[in-house]
Every structure is written in structure tokens, then in C-alpha cells.
Amino acid sequence: MADEQAQARSQETARSQEAMKRTQESARRNIQDVAHMSDELTRLGAETMTVWTRVNRQVWRDMMDLGSKTSQQGVHLMTQLQQTGVEAWREFQDSAVRWSTMWPEAFRDPMRFYQRTLEQSMDAAQRSLGFTRQTSETVSRSLQEMQQTAEEASRSVQQAFQDGTSKLEEVTRRTERLHAA
User: Fold this and answer.
1) Least buried of 36, 113, 116, 160, by fewest C-beta within 10 Å?
2) What is the DSSP letter of 132?
3) pTM over 0.70
4) Residue 44's pLDDT is what?
């Protein structure tokens, strides 16, 4: 009977050791799984931050480009408007000189004076309308270019967000797969 008890204890000890080995192996696998999951989650978090950083950088770059191009266009517009203003001022001065030289003719030949003043007035009105048209065209052209620049920036920002969204959806799917595993 002592042999049977020793044998039973020996079998019990072997079973205990086997159970302990299985428990240790299971714990080792669980630790490896947790470490793997932790590594994977860290990698996914880093990818998420990278995506947001890229989107943020692209949006800022597009906004800075838009601001720069808008400023350049504004400076160009102001330069053209100033040139038109200088031309109009010169025309005003020339017109003032012409009017002052016509006065002596008013006493010699009043009809010719009236005719010339009417012609000068019509020419001045046409030139004034020409300057107005030129200014309007300049402003219109500038606004069209600014609108085109803003549309390009808008498309670029929209594309950056679409790209970022698709990449984040990919990261989300991979994260969900990890949670399911």
C-alpha cells in the first residue's frame, strides 16, 4: 500500500507539474499576445498621429500658399490701380492746361470756343470712362485670379482631408481587427 500511495503521489506530482507547465506556457503565450497587441496598438497610434500630422501640414501649406498668392495678387492689383490713377491724374493736368489755353479763343471766336470745349468735354468723358473700364477690368481680372487660387486651395485641402480620412479608416479597421482577436 505504501507503494501505491507513493505511486499515487508521484502521479499527482507529475499531474501538478504538467498543469503548472501548461499554466506557465499559457501565461507566456498571453504575455506574448499582450506584448504583440501593445506593439500593434502603439504602431496604429503612431500611424494615426502621422496621418493627422500630414493632413495638418498639407492644410497649413495650402493656407499659407493661398495667403501668399492673395497678397501677391493684392499688391499687383494696387500697383495697376495706382498706375491707372497716375494716368488719370496726368490726363486731368493735360486737360487743365488745354482749358487754360483755350480761354483767349473764347473772345476771338466764341462759336469755335464752344465747339472745342464741347469736343474737349466729350473726349474727357470718354477718357474718364476708359479709365473706369480699365479699373473695372483690372479688379475683375484680379478677383477672378483670387477666386481661382482659392478654389485650388479648397480642392487641395479637401483632397488632403479625403486622403487622411481613408487612411484613418484603414487604421480603424486594423484596430477593430486587433480588438476582435
Assistant:
1) 36
2) H
3) no
4) 84
